[in-house]
Amino acid sequence: MSIRITIDRQEIETEEGAMLIDVAAGNGVYIPSLCYVRGRPRLGTCRTCSVRVNGKVMASCTVPVADGMVVEVDEPEVADMRKALVELLFSEGNHNCPSCEKSGRCDLQATGYETGMMVSRFPYRFPRREREHAAKSIWLERDRCIFCQRCVEFIRDRGAGRKIFSIGGRGTSARIEMDIELADRMPPEQVREAVTLCPVGCILEKGVGYDEPIGRRKYEIRSIREHTLGRKQK
Ligand code: SF4
Ligand code: SF4
Ligand code: FES
Q1: How far is the CA of 101 from the centre of ligand 1 (A)?
Q2: Buried/exposed 212-229: b ≥16 CB within 10 Å, e otherwise
Q3: Which member of 105, 140, 169, 177 lies 3.0 to 4.6 Å from 173 by CB, making a disulfide possible if both were Cys?
Q4: Could you give the 3-state DSSP secondary structure of residue 80?
Q5: Does ligand 2 come within 6 angstroms of the Cβ of 146?
Q6: pTM for this structure?
Q7: Domain locations in the chain?
Q8: Positive or negative CA dihedral for 79, 81, 40, 146?
Q9: pLDDT digits 0-9 by tens, 62-121
Q10: CA torsion, points 62, 153, 186, 212, in degrees to nearest 10?
Q11: What's the topology of domain 94-220?
Q12: Tell me, which fold does domain 2-87+223-233 have in CATH?
């Protein structure tokens, strides 16, 4: 059913039940996202896609549009809240972009640029989570994990469909874990899928960390805004 909603005072005609984040992208309104993958079940873990819907803050990747909905994306207070969430993610991990294999193709880094973040307003925690090197072709830089759960939910063993990645521990001792036996059975294309799906440089493929030349990586040739809107309009 065709309905009308308003995003930043722009009237938009759309279909009832579509996800707000997709409707926004389809109409040229950029909303940052880190855990959402279009066409896959919603995770709602990062909250970086937060907007105001009818006066209430909500994660736009979890909200189906409804007739008469009034959405605020670019309102300064809401934009600053998204920026604060991105800053929090930086302060909860160890992110040294110039030496990171994912630099230039990292969604968190790109989101930092897009939200205008310069430095985190929160104290840096400098976690010390051991790296995982035991698998044949994958290694984990655990201090860069933002706990989005993409790998946990979307990367499964191709045999019995078991989870390969999981989050162990709680609070400050939480860390990403990998079933080494299952990881060693992943075909090369699934390894690359996991590396690409991880929005940061936590899941990495051994031996190819700098395979794509710096200067030609996806966010070095276009912004996350263009990348996101372009992808979602297809
Ligand atoms: S994971 Fe992203 S934000 Fe973190 S150091 Fe690497 S490029 Fe920077
Ligand atoms: S390893 Fe990557 S994909 Fe998995 S939870 Fe951490 S950030 Fe998300
Ligand atoms: S992208 Fe919406 S909660 Fe993460």
Answers
A1: 8
A2: eeeeeeebeeeebbebbb
A3: 169
A4: helix
A5: yes
A6: 0.94
A7: 2-87+223-233, 94-220
A8: positive
A9: 999 999 999 999 999 999 999 999 999 999 999 999 999 999 999 999 999 999 999 999
A10: 40
A11: Alpha-Beta Plaits (3.30.70)
A12: Ubiquitin-like (UB roll) (3.10.20)
